[in-house]
Amino acid sequence: MDVQEWIKNVIKEDEITRYMENGNDFINDAEIWAKIEGNKNPDPSKVRDILDKSLAIETLEPDETATLINVQDEGLFEEIFDVAAKVKRKVYDNRIVTFAPLYCSNLCVNNCLYCAFRKENRAQKRRKLTFEEIKKETEVLAGKMGHKRVIVVVGEHPVSDANYIADAIRAVYSVKVKTKHGYGQIRRANVNIPPMSIDDLKMLREIGIGTFQVFQETYSHEAYQRVHPPGTIKSNYRWRLYALHRAIEAGIDDVASGALFGLYDWRFEVMGLLYHARDLERQFGGLGPHTISFPRLEPAVETPFIHETNYKVSDRDFKRLVAILRLSVPYTGMILTAREREAIRREVIPVGCTQTDASTRIGIGAYSERYSEQEAEKQQFVLGDTRSLDEVIREFAEGGTITSFCTAGYRCGRTGTRIMDLLKCGKEAHFCKLNAVLTFREWLDDFASEETKKVGEKVIGKELQEIEEKMPAVYPKVKEYYKRIENGERDIYF
Ligand code: SAM
Ligand code: SF4
Questions:
Q1: pLDDT tens track for 345-377
Q2: Cα–Cα distance between 458 and 74 in angstroms, integer?
Q3: Which domain holds residue 438?
């Protein structure tokens, strides 16, 4: 295929303009700055009113988020962290979900200054996995580590177009591996892939992709153009900005936004993520992002831009921005990635994160093949947390958090606006609590080390006790399912 010809045909102008109003997109840079500047030195009582609104699980207004962004008082910030943690607990209880990225191809036609996969990076060895190789990767993820969710990642290139991604996902779902007591299988394949046309997205929906995730990278029009050189597909800001709108139109209910923090002022990006959520809600009957991600720029091989940016986000600001996002879009899931080091992960997860990756490898083929240290350095970026899933889960359990491998919601139609409504009124927590216990039991039996099993069982014991007290009607059924899982049955859920 002629690459230049392919590039010309990717972007469909009318699949951008149909979502715009009077020729404008929903990011008005001047307006965002005016809101940040106009809400300086907020009164504590105003801040507390906003916190009450978040606790009622209502999306904030831009002025309200700008107010939180402007808080400087450390004491008031402690209150913000505290309420962010409460909101998280109210919507998602003490659960966390884990997943693993599955990098399938690093060929890319774009030239994003911050990414080691950019086409001009000659230090990068290019490779696209075959479907057999994808199956091998999946065997390790599902059969050895015990993951139930992956996120398929590719660069933007004709060799990894929608057809390739569809076949890759079929390959992932086709793997079923015998384990100690049952079997391992990926039950949900999400994607972090380039923006697509509505037709391509429809095809992906039909083969059963999970969440469709695209990060805007930066919401600033000007910074966006600076880091995405002209002439590349990615330099089209609006094609990317409306990627999630197109996905919803194609029938994909669960869409995920994100910004790459470090390309521009973090305060602006938080506002951009809020405006994005609000525009989706406005155009699609209240349906906002299923998750929000907030990766920070990490060093990458032969990628000097990382050291040149003026917008690096400190750990202190990072914790703040995570809490403010939690409060601004209270119903959304929030993903912290293994880009972050263990210490900062411990700080930040309690103020609002609901998902994280673990035992992550981002080299192409790196789960099933041996990677030398030199090769590992050439990955897309450098990981901050390389602990195994078992270690990460043990640490969560020690802190009273249960790791949920539940994917039932998606298979029972609890997606899109239905799940949004359940999340907003706290009812999804009900199903999730039960399924978290069942899926965690499965995982402990099939994959956990003895040490992790011990701590994990304590958490399960506490959860079962809570279910018995708070949901007595359903408790006998939970016990029955639980017994069946102990006897080797798998994938039983509410
Ligand atoms: N190529 C597709 C795209 O750009 O949308 C999808 C996959 S891309 C490999 C996934 C994400 O990695 C990008 O959206 C970007 O936010 C992130 N990324 C790129 N370079 C990074 C770096 N140096 N540090 C941290 N994250 C990075
Ligand atoms: Fe390619 Fe995505 Fe990396 Fe940009 S961020 S160079 S599009 S892989």
A1: 999 999 999 999 999 998 899 999 876 666 666
A2: 35
A3: 425-486
